[in-house]
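Entry 14. Structure prediction run on the chain below.
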Amino acid sequence: MAELQRDGVQAWRMCAVAFLAMFTGFGVAYSFSAFLLPMRDELGTGLGETSAVFSLTTLALFALGGLAGPAVDRFGPRRVVLVGAVSLGLGLLLTSQATSLWQAYLGHGLGVGLAVACSYVPLVAVVGGWFEHRRTLAVGVAVSGIGLGTLLVAPLSAALVGQVGWRDAYLVLAVAGTASLLLCALLVRGAPVVATAEPVRLGPRLRTATYLRLYAAGLLLSIALFVPFVHLPGYAETRGTGEVAAAGLVGLIGAASVVGRLALGAAAARVGVLRTYQGCYVAMAASFLLLLGGPGYPRLVLFAVVLGVGYGGFVALGPPLMAEFFGVQGLGGLLGVLYTSAALGSFVGPPLAGRLITTTDSYLPAFAGSLVIGIAASLVVALVRTPTTVR
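Output returned:
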C-alpha cells in the first residue's frame, strides 16, 4: 500500500512544498550580500567581521541540519518546519533591531540558520522518501527552490534596502518569510514508511572511504564556494556596477543553479550520478579563472552562470548519490552529517576572504585562493568510488 503512494500526485505535492520552503529560506539567507555594506557602514564594523554574519548563518544551517535530519524522522516534518518558521521571524526581527554585530550574529546567524536547517535537509529527505523511480528529478525540482529564491530575493532585497533601508527591509522579509514557512508546515506530510528487516546503522556507513572522501571534498569546496555569495557584489561595485545589478549577480548564480539542478539531473541519468557530480566540482573550480582574467561585467555574468550551473548540480545530485550508495533508509542522517562539511567550509571561507581583501586592498588574492582550494576539492572527489558495503 505504501509503495503505491510513491511517485504519485501526493509525492509531487510534497516536492512543491519543499520547493517553496527552500525558496523562502535560502532566498533570505543568500540575500545577505545586499545588506553587507549598509550594515557594515552603520554598525562601524570591518568587512571580515560583518561577512561573518553570513558565515554563521551557513554554519548554523548546515550544522543544525545534522540534527534536523534525524528530528524529522522522530517528530515528523510538520513540527520541524514550524520551528523553522518561528525561528526565521524572530531571527530577522532581532537582526533588524541590531545595534551591535553580536546581535546580528545571533539573529541572522542562529535564527535564519536554524530556519533553513529545518526546511532543507528534512524536506530533501522527505522528497527522497516519497519517490523511487523519479527521485533524482524530484529532488532536482525541490532544490531548484534554492536557485530561484536566490535569483529573486537577492535583487529584491537590494531594491528594498535602497528604498526603506536595511532594517525595514529585514522586517519585510520577516513577515513574508514566516508566512511562507507556516504554509509549508501546514501542507507537509511525512513520506511512506517501508518496513525493513533490521534497523539501518548510521556509523558504519559514515566510516566508509567513500563517505569520508565525499565529506573532505565537500569541506574544501565549501570554503571556496560561498566566497562569491558574500563578496562578488562588492567586487562588482568596485568595478563601477550599480548596487542592484551587483546584487543581481548573486541572483544570477541562483538562476543558473536552477538550470544545473534540472539539466544535470537529466544528464546523470545517462552518464551516471557520480560522474556528473564529479564534473560539477570541476566546473565550479574552473569558474574562478574568470574572476582572475580581468574586469568587466560580462565576465562576471559568465562567472556567475558557470559557478551556478555547477553549484546547482552539486546540490541536486548529492541526495540521489547518497541514496544510490547507501539506500534511502536513514537518508536524513547521512545528509545531515555530510552537510556539516558545508557548515565548516562556509564558516571559514567568506570571513577569511574578507580579511584578505581588507589586508591586500584587492579581491584577486581571495579569488585566486578559492581557485586553488576548488582544484583540491575536485582532486579529492575524483577519488570517490562506489562503496563495497552500502546498506
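The chain has a mean pLDDT of 86.
Filed with the rest of this week's runs.
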